[in-house]
Amino acid sequence: MENFEFVSPTHFVFGRGVENEVGAKLAAVGAKRVLVHFGGESARRSGLIDRVSASLDAAGIEHLELGGVRPNPEVTLVREGVRLCKEGDVDWILAVGGGSVIDSAKAIANGACVDCDVWELFETKALDHDVLPIAVVLTIPAAGSEASKNTVISNDELGRKTGYANNAQRPKFAFMNPELTFTLPPFQTAAGLTDMYCHLLERFFDDYGAVPVTDNLNLSLMNTIRAEAPRVLADPENYDARANIMWAGMLCHQGLAGVGRHEDWATHGLEHELSALDPAITHGAGLAVMFPAWMEYVHGENPARFAFYGQAVFGLTPTGDANADALSAIDETRSFFASLGMPTTLAELGVEENDIEKMLPTLAQNKGVPFGSFKKLTLEDAAEIYRLAL
């Protein structure tokens, strides 16, 4: 097991109706003026914004609103949030939504505490500044951003999508009511399940080897996601299935499932270029295409690892041929994503071979070269993986 640091400051409030406790919890820690940050009008139409606002009002907390976060959140709205925080003397940010809203809130929380443009933090990765405290009312379990140290923001002007990691931006509170996810469309539910599962794959496959305590947690979460996925797609209002998925999504990206390992993250880098190329590409859908392609390309580095994964998650019987068993595990992974209704090729996402060369320069900017840990990848490798995914 490698040396590691693990920080987990998030106070979780889980269960039915917990969004009504936001005001009391934030008042107890001294919040005075809150920016409520959310996505589209569904949060308002559902009454959730009204309930959250009433909770803040009852606690005597002033608040202002900034909606409009899109999937693959963009830096322009982040800059507007930074302006509101600085001009309005905001001392807490409350994200009401899923990973895109939370990522945008994290970027605002950082930008509100620096004199430079917020995008500079994504370029320089600077950490030596304060961060406004963040609370989350989670509505889409997927990204795990409600407890992670990571945020990812797009810059359409530059054609880039890149991440920023800072333990100081881990949310202080996460209010998690599974009932808020009952009305999620099937595609969004499936994309979220895929994203969770891929967070685990990024951690399970690296160059380190076995770390049994971490690996077994990782494999248990994979099996939980596979077990709950068909239940929740068949019965969207199954509270227990939604609850298990919501809690698993947090554990998949909080960091605990990767302690003692190097982790890989090459595939997320490859996918980020897809949704920078076309922001309409859903992150989970892009991952469903790219992960099996990455697996096919790199499995020869350690086929036994893939074979073990196939046995532990899909119940595959060893044949004595580790390479064949690895390929069977990859086939099962692709089939699992397809069973959720996810795409299996870049063509289904509208990405063509002539788009590959467009993505490589920003991939190099965002990930550096070489990148990944299971197999060190060059830009030529990246191009081949994209071609495998066509």
TrEMBL record:
One Gene Ontology cellular component: cytosol
SUPFAM superfamilies assigned: Dehydroquinate synthase-like
Electron transport recorded as keyword: no
Domain Fe-containing alcohol dehydrogenase-like C-terminal positions: 189-389
The entry's keywords: Oxidoreductase
Coiled-coil residue spans: none
Pfam families: ADH_Fe_C, Fe-ADH
One of the record's GO molecular function terms: metal ion binding
Domain Alcohol dehydrogenase iron-type/glycerol dehydrogenase GldA: 9-178
InterPro entries for this protein: ADH_Fe/GldA, ADH_Fe_C, BDH-like
Listed transmembrane segments: none
Keyword Oxidoreductase: yes
Official protein name in the record: Iron-containing alcohol dehydrogenase
Species name: Adlercreutzia muris
